[in-house]
Design a protein that fits this description.
233 residues, alpha+beta, Trna Endonuclease, Chain: A, domain 1, 6-stranded mixed sheet, 3-stranded antiparallel sheet, 5 helices, 15 strands
Length: 233
């Protein structure tokens, strides 16, 4: 966790103390962005995937990786974006790919408190450099896309349905891509059966942010790593 800095909400003028959370680099070291004490926070009016990420350098291994932009929710309802020193936007947002050959290194989880945390956890788990918000919005949840991969993250407290899995699989088939499904609320029995027959890796995200494999396809992905599958394609 980085050093706490004072933050004043531009909407209601309340003062807060904020410390940017640490997220794990691919090397395993915790990384936090350096906050800019001299710049004022801004209240978010709308969201953009590209603007939700900032490039941060890992002091342990030197990797420069996209990280979720620091944010703070004020009791007045405003969501504040906290300025980062020397911030560089990350247009191809997503984690730095792991260079090591499979089996994959141990995943460092991200605690899930919001839907954004769930998406961050899935993106960090997949470790694609070019991961981004999918162009085609899924019927439910949030779609992620990278070269050769489509993923769906379902944050609502509703078990994944067979239709959810089939829609993701059909979309991936039309784009000649692999796919993976992440759910916070588990999955219905027919969804698991369908995922097994269609070859869709199915994961449940627990509140610690750790994807738990639900079927053998997810076990395979967990063992080899998403990036390993891409290299073998």
């Amino acid at each position: 966790m980085s050093e706490s800095v004072p933050v004043r909400c531009p909407a209601c003028r309340r003062e807060h103390l904020y410390a940017a959370p640490s997220y794990p680099c691919a090397c395993g070291a915790p990384v936090s962005p350096a906050l800019d004490r001299r710049a004022a926070p801004t209240a978010l009016a709308h969201r953009s995937w590209d603007e939700d990420w900032v490039t941060v350098r890992c002091a342990a291994c030197g990797r420069r990786v996209p990280w979720p932009y620091p944010e703070l929710g004020c009791p007045c309802g405003a969501v504040l974006r906290i300025p980062v020193a020397g911030a560089a936007s990350a247009p191809e947002a997503g984690p730095e790919p792991v260079d090591e050959a499979p089996p994959r290194p141990a995943f460092q989880p991200v605690t899930i408190r919001t839907a954004r945390d769930a998406v961050t956890a899935a993106a960090l788990y997949l470790r694609y450099r070019d991961i981004r918000r999918a162009d085609q919005r899924p019927p439910s949840g949030i779609g992620l896309a990278a070269r050769g991969l489509l993923a769906q993250v379902d944050p609502p407290v509703r078990p994944a349905s067979l239709r959810d899995v089939e829609c993701l699989w059909l979309t991936a088939m039309t784009e000649a891509a692999g796919c993976a499904y992440f759910s916070l609320a588990g999955c219905a029995d027919d969804a698991r059966t369908g995922a097994d027959s269609l070859g869709v890796p199915l994961f449940v995200l627990d509140l610690t942010g750790t994807p738990q494999p639900v079927n053998t396809h997810a076990d395979d992905l967990n063992a080899t790593g998403a990036d390993g599958r891409r290299r073998e394609a």
